[in-house]
Protein 1
Amino acid sequence: MTDFKETGVVDLKTLVKMGYVPSDVRLHRGPVAIYECVEEIPCDVCVFSCPFNAVSKNKMTDIPKVDFERCTGCGVCVGRCPGLAVFVVDVSREGDEGYVTLPHELLPPPSQGDAVVVLDREGGEAGTGRVVKTYRDRLTGSWVTTVAVPKNLVMNVRAIRVIKR
Amino acid sequence: MIVNPDLRIYTHPILEFKRGGEVTVFFEGKPFRAFEGEALAAAIYASGVNVFRISPVRGRPRGVFCMVGKCGSCMVRVDGVPMRSCVTSVRHDMKVERVSGLPDLSRYGRDVAREELDVDVLIIGGGPAGMASAEVLCGTDLETVLIDDQIRLGGQLIKQTHIFFGSRELFAGRRGFEIADDYNKRLSKCSNLKIITGTTVVGVFKEGVLAVGDNVLYLVRPKYVVVAAGAFENHLVFDNNDLPGVMGAGGAQTLMNVWGVKPGSEVLVIGSGNVGLIISYQLLQAGVNVKAVVEALPRIGGWFVHAAKIRRYGIPILTRHTILSVKGSERVEEAVIASVDENWNVVPGTEKAIKTDTVLLAVGLTPNTELLRQFGVAMKYIPDLGGLVPLRTRYMETSVENVFIAGDIAAIEEATTAFIEGWIAGYSILIKAYGEREDFIESREKYLRMLQEYRSAPVSEKVRRGWQLSLIS
Ligand code: SF4
Ligand code: SF4
């Protein structure tokens, strides 16, 4: 496990250890939130943003605890989290495509059908994807954007670069 | 036709820049396009002016640094009168020249109005802390005056475009500049509150507190004072560190987020605290190429989530690195960085030149405590709080009775804690003025608990430690 405060990049092992990766069964049942909020900071935006009470904290400074049974993968928290630390993954559909929903705040604005370059946690190009859905969060203005990517990349893709023709 | 480079941001993912009508200003005889409402420094910087003045002793070029009127690096002569161009609004047909050497006192002897104010409360500084105190006092019969040196209240909030953390009561989920807008509206409606902007409190005298506005001298005699004067950005020692293009990160934030002007086209950020990480992300949003974030420590200073935001767009964070020098004639053209070992020594042979036109310093802040020292407040050097800071009670009163503090002047922290401290100071004044009313005490206790909760995370360890050392009973 690497020290994420040395690199600014968290690895999968750490996420698993912190309870942020749902079981395979849950993952295959439908969309679910992956929280990458691995450091204790004073914030509980996710707790009061979630319409399904799926996120909790005992203290404002704990790391959030996600109840994967309650989480519907609705994506509300993706657009609200000030740390841009929440993603929704969906590997439940037939075929080779999985979906990642992520917050996007750069130009050009994404629109449905756009081709995108997908980036991993270090900004490395992990391949290409396609915007299947996007909307602006009404409070923050973030584009909550769902991209289709190869299923095996859903736990890697954490940002996009929008290509406009 | 005027053809100059243009660093203005016209499209932005989050912000919208409203510009007034087009005007022309002349700098060193050449015409430049500007927009009504713009700060002069921002307008001419946007058109490619790098050198604003020539230093008095060694004749070195100087450019913009702080963008909030604190450093004097951008002083120019406007129609013959020396002015800090970052806090001067453009006017059509202005004739602007570089100041070479010391500026002159061309305005000395001019008639100014004088105003004497006998008030209950004087709040110095209209950032989050000062606005919070004013909010508590609003609607009471305590006559209050709030003095701020900027054009508009809000302090550093007006350039904060990121979404706030913290709980709902603490504005979480909102962006800083929106909070500032709300407060500007709300406070302007308080009948017991007089807001004086564009005015600097310069000193404490036997006769009262003196403040200097553009055309008015104020002498204020308050019963209670809240000093919420904030902090200023630290500089860093390296070769050529005064070359235009080396700028405070906060200055760059003002340029970019308030005035909609890019600080440069390629930027190297020094310091990986939250300020350095957040500005890097904002530069990305403005379409600026961020070369790297350089950090001398082995670990990233700011919050992980802020680091992750820039890493996923490929911005490297170079820990155990430092900046050695910048090179360039009228502006930075190149920066040299190198690795450092555990003892902070440069590792020979690791020097690397990076092509960049801008270097932003995000290497911490120092509390702006000069006025407090004039009030005679007991101070202590506490590095964990940012340097020399006032001693205080848990109710935010200093060693001098009825002189209160709130915000970065008490400890370098965040807008959220500045608000809470401002509320606490406000209630402390109400309790002194009206006696120990239960509702006041209860409110103050609530905010004291909030402050404690907010600071309970490991990321606040330094402040917690420092705060203990700064307490008096
Ligand atoms: S995705 Fe929806 S249900 Fe799941 S945690 Fe976020 S807001 Fe709650
Ligand atoms: S809202 Fe985001 S940053 Fe805040 S605690 Fe939740 S996951 Fe972490």
Protein 2
Amino acid sequence: MSDTEETQDDKDGAMEAPINSPEVEAAVEENVEPEIVEEVEAADEADAADSVDAAVVNEPAPSGEFVATDGAVLGRDFVLPGVAPGDNDPYKWHTGRKREHGSTDAIEIVDVVKQFGRTRILNGLNLGLPDDQISMVLGPSGTGKSVLIKHIVGLLYPDQGDVIVKGQSVPDLSDDDLFEMRKKFGLLFQDGALFGSMNIYDNVAFPLRQHTDKGEDEIESIVTRRLREVGLGESHYKMPNELSGGMRKRAGFARALVLDPEIVMFDEPDSGLDPVRTALLCELIKEVHAESGGCYMVISHDLGTARRIADFIAVLWKGRIVESGPKDELFESDNEFVHQFLQADVHGPLAMD
Amino acid sequence: MVKATATKAIEPAKEFFTEAGEMMILTGRTVMSAVKPPYPYGNEFIGQFLFALQLCWFPMLVSCVAFGFGAPGLQAANFLSLFGALDRLGGFFVLASIREFAPFVTAVVVAGVAGTAITADLGARKIREELDALQVLGVDPIKNLVVPRFLALMLITGMLDIYALLFGIAGGIGAELLYAQPLGGFFATLFSNASTTELAASVLKCTLFGAIIAIVCCYKGMTATGGAAGVGRAVNEAVVTALLGVFIFNYLFTQTMLATNPDLQTIK
Ligand SMILES: Nc1ncnc2c1ncn2[C@@H]1O[C@H](COP(=O)(O)OP(=O)(O)OP(=O)(O)O)[C@@H](O)[C@H]1O
Ligand SMILES: [Mg+2]
């Protein structure tokens, strides 16, 4: 699940349409549902523009509406990924329970709804991420974790609801204020997002040159230290396309931390890394956090990573939080979905489809 | 069912108008961003300008000479020789080359060579999330990427228009020589028909072609989706849309120019 090609596939799938999401593709391989297979093949041939229509596959039965436990009735005019036709309460596991974490929230997501075409990715999401702790957002592939990060940094705007970072509403900020606000963020993108025209050193130095008045000497010492920390001390002058996926990830990691940001978000920092490097990276995250503090948010599929570094865990599924709370409490949760997910159990509410 | 069919039919049209609208907005934001300080795009501007020049000069030279020699040159000379009026070829070149062919060849070459390079470059950056990363790092992609490309393409198309004129006329001279004509008549009618208004309009028009190409190509690149295949698709759409835009604008511009300057219609 965690090599670069996998990430690349995920990415390409994500670009097309929900029907091509990894789960469905996996379902295709196993031939679980012959009808869906046909549809999927048709959708594959169709142009990306058409693929929105192909998503009709998991449209609910004409009679049925989604009625969530909290009384929300979701119309038929959109598709929710992972919700089967006739599934009357896709939210039966979502208690939305938020356990006490003993800190203030640095980031608050309030009733956020986000829809791409007819596919609703976030559906009334409520989430608070505690300050001065390492939070982890877990969830099945394609549930909108990367989309969530983009809302927090103001790259995407919610259709409804609000995103509040350090007391400021991100969607309401003017462009200038948003640029100012972004200086507080350190962000590692899922694919590293290094600048292809610059070598690794310049990539990591970029935020310093952009946002600070530091001289080249000082920049050099910071960049060298950060690159050594992630094991790229020898690769200063390599270009991003000469690096492996894992090395790009680590370079992106160094770039995210170079400004000592108050809010750090890592989108799958451990995908594409070998187990030892993953463990070392976890140590590094904890060290840096202990050193400079701040609100850290880590997205990962790796339960080992969750055990090692998380203080706070939130589980995202079907566009809402199933449950969130301090790590130990969540690992012991009696919620069936949370239990299944955190124990990687094949039996439970979550299946391939 | 009916609704689904109707949606299918309306969807492409809706998409077209949305895109056209978004390109207008991008144009507005680019112009605003270009004038509003700070001006961090100097180096990128020079880089893009030299890059476009490097890519375009040779294709331009070949296209202009071949086109000038072939289309207005040989064809028109053949026609004019019927009346024994080959000296009129110079005058015809004012109409043909200055007014239409030079800007036309420039637009086609710049869109095909420099425009596609811009779309491919920005598209690849979009796909690799570099544009998102830039924004998060507090760099405005419009100011730092679109504005320099916009200005560089405007400057280069304006300049290449003159270049296209000169080489197009060289093609015409070639045709004249092929018909064993003295060049005196060619130049006489060329200069009697040419006017500074005509030349200025040609350069202005071509500069605006550059603006259209830059906006369309940047827009298509920055909105590319769907992995590497998506970048290919974006490049393809960018050339088609840019040239369509250029031709429509060309028609409007030439009509307006002739309507406001009726004396240009008189052949001297
Ligand atoms: N710009 C976009 N336009 C259309 N759909 C999008 C866009 N961005 C994301 N999506 C869709 O949103 C869904 C969630 O995507 P996202 O990348 O957030 O998943 P994820 O939770 O990060 O998954 P993974 O763990 O595999 O990275 C996907 O189905 C994807 O197709
Ligand atoms: Mg993701």
